[in-house]
UniProtKB/TrEMBL annotation:
Belongs to the thiolase-like superfamily. Thiolase family. The active site is at 96 (acyl-thioester intermediate), 349 (proton acceptor), 379 (proton acceptor). PANTHER family: ACETYL-COA C-ACYLTRANSFERASE, BLR7806 PROTEIN. This is Acetyl-CoA acetyltransferase. Residues 10-262 form the Thiolase N-terminal domain.
Length: 395
């Protein structure tokens, strides 16, 4: 992604909060979302040592932009973090990929010459602003779109059930993958692989949701989460395999990534961690909704001029276990290189924050393992997906 006058976009710092349970008893429930995001922004500036007055924009992903997350939380959080009033901020919604899209917008702005230094961030407090809060009683967010799908669209959980049925994944396969996510995340936590990216908050020092010792047997005891007689009648092929154990949990958290050019980084004495090589976004079938990661991966590789074998690490958001399994099956990716420190099923999925959270984890994992290329992709509500390839830069 070399742009105007040969400009590039590099990540020079990335931080995140630990992910808390998105419930009233979660460790981060008492933290207002604006303050949750401000915490990551403050630490990002502190670690990088830059003067926040040099930041050209703060682009923030947030999904439920209502209540505590209303009125442009990106701008409010940067002011809460003590940034100068001259620093602007905006908030974007690409559903679950909101902050991955924020990273793409930031990189594009830097490459185009619109920015020299920009922050891409994300936040979601699902305990304080429940999923779906922005759909007010009596409102109709779909309008004429509903005429295009007269049989009706479905919640993501039903989409996950449809994927499991279409690709033929058994409940045991889904639970086995999910237990593995917890095992990897627990091991990464134990070995301190997250330490470099985490910023403790409100007494929480590690991800709250990870459950060491999770097994297929314990997950097998959980009941299907999305069963209804109406959907059973409409979709007789569904085996009702999606449970809370093989789905991403409700979560609270924030993350922030500092992006600039190689030239500016050198001038300011900042070390580029990775170059944003290529990014893309695609639309996909809104009934299956979560399968966009497949064409997004194919498109970003094609645009980058790279092959699957060039990629050292993959991060695929674990919205539901069958999403990652279907992706790996169709693109031919190696699951041993995927979500190597665990994924959202174990760590959590604070919607608007997840893209930046995953990128923060991916940058660190790539450096820890000495790889060159990594690919991140996320499925998104309404049938979309972002994909980004980063390239680690030598010290």
């Amino acid at each position: 992604m070399a742009g105007f006058a040969g400009r590039d976009a590099v990540i020079v710092e990335a931080v995140r909060t630990p992910i808390g349970k998105g419930k009233a008893n979660g460790a981060l429930h008492d933290v207002l979302p604006v303050d949750l995001l401000a915490h990551s922004l403050t630490e990002l500036v502190k670690r990088s040592g830059i003067d926040p007055a040099q930041i050209d924009d703060v682009i923030t992903g947030a999904v439920s932009q209502v209540g505590d997350q209303a009125v442009n939380i990106g701008r409010n959080a940067l002011l809460a973090a003590g940034f100068p009033e001259t620093v602007p901020g905006t908030t974007v919604d690409r559903q679950c990929g909101s902050s991955q899209q924020a990273i793409a917008f930031a990189a594009q702005g830097v490459i185009a010459g619109a920015y020299d230094i920009v922050v891409a961030a994300g936040v979601e407090s699902m305990s304080r602003v429940p999923m779906g809060s922005s759909v007010l009683p009596g409102s109709d967010p779909f309008g004429a779109m509903a005429q295009r799908y007269p049989e009706g669209l479905v919640p993501q959980g039903i989409s996950a059930e449809l994927i499991a049925a279409k690709w033929g994944f058994s409940r045991e396969q889904l639970d086995d993958f999910s237990a593995g996510s917890h095992e990897k995340a627990a091991q990464a936590t134990k070995e301190g692989r997250f330490d470099n990216e985490l910023i403790p908050i409100n007494g929480l020092t590690t991800d709250e949701i990870v459950r060491p010792g999770t097994t297929v047997e314990t997950l097998a005891a959980l009941k299907p989460a999305f069963y209804t007689p109406a959907y059973e009648a409409r979709f007789p092929q569904i085996q009702w395999a999606i449970t809370p154990g093989n789905s991403s949990p409700l979560s609270d958290g924030s993350a922030a990534v500092l992006i600039t050019t190689s030239e500016v980084a050198k001038r300011l004495g900042l070390r580029p961690l990775a170059r944003i090589h290529t990014s893309t976004v695609v639309g996909s079938d809104p009934l299956y909704m979560l399968t966009g990661v497949i064409p997004a991966t194919e498109k970003v590789l094609r645009n980058a001029g790279l092959s699957l074998s060039d990629i050292d690490l993959f991060e695929v958001n674990e919205a539901f276990a069958p999403v990652v399994l279907a992706w790996a099956h169709d693109v031919g990716a190696d699951l041993s290189k995927t979500n190597v420190n665990g994924g959202a099923i174990a760590i959590g999925h604070p919607l608007g924050a997840s893209g930046a959270r995953i990128m923060t984890t991916l940058v660190n994992a790539l450096e820890q393992r000495g790889g060159r290329y990594a690919l991140q992709t996320m499925c998104e509500g309404g049938g979309m997906a972002n994909a980004t390839i980063i390239e680690r830069l030598a010290k």
